[in-house]
Design goal:
mainly alpha; Helicase, Ruva Protein, domain 3; 6 helices
Length: 164
């Protein structure tokens, strides 16, 4: 029973270790001051790796991501605030470096496009429905048209399969 319990505990710990996120920060990058290091980690989690593009520089193993992590730590050691570090990175690499872009008037259309498309689609559907209602019911066939339709349908039923 004791061996089974030890195996279960070891397996659980191994599973938890494998489930933890793999961070790419190397030991030589870690700052000695835990407060500065936590700030660096928070900033790194907000910056996009320019190589991977869907990972933060905190998660990426790319050499450029390492360079960016080093720059973040250097700026923090120099006394920059978190916003100054982010502003520096945006000035250097553009707003694309942010994993969550900020809302500004320059990119307002980008943020509003889905809402505008939904609104225009709703207006178009409403106008089409009103037009359909205004047109009234479909006109009925005259007696001559109904007789001609019945004759064509009967003719089609009498024709052998495969021939019009």
């Amino acid at each position: 029973m004791g061996a089974n319990l030890r195996t279960l505990v070891a397996g659980t710990l191994l599973g938890l270790a494998l489930a933890a996120p793999a961070l790419a920060v190397q030991p030589d990058e870690v700052l000695g001051d835990p407060v500065l290091e936590s700030r660096a980690r928070a900033i790194s989690a907000e910056l996009r790796c320019m190589v991977c593009q869907n990972q933060s520089i905190d998660d990426s193993d790319a050499p450029l991501a390492k360079d960016l992590r080093v720059i973040v730590r250097e700026r923090l050691k120099a006394g920059d605030s978190d916003s100054q570090v982010l502003d520096f990175m945006v000035a250097r690499y553009g707003e694309f470096v942010l994993l969550r872009p900020t809302f500004s008037w320059r990119n307002a259309l980008l943020w509003a496009t889905p809402l505008i498309v939904l609104l225009l689609g709703g207006i178009g559907a409403l106008l089409a429905l009103r037009r359909r209602r205004a047109a009234g019911p479909a006109p009925r066939l005259s007696a001559a048209e109904e007789a001609r339709l019945k004759a064509l349908l009967a003719e089609g039923d009498a024709a052998p399969p495969g021939k019009p």
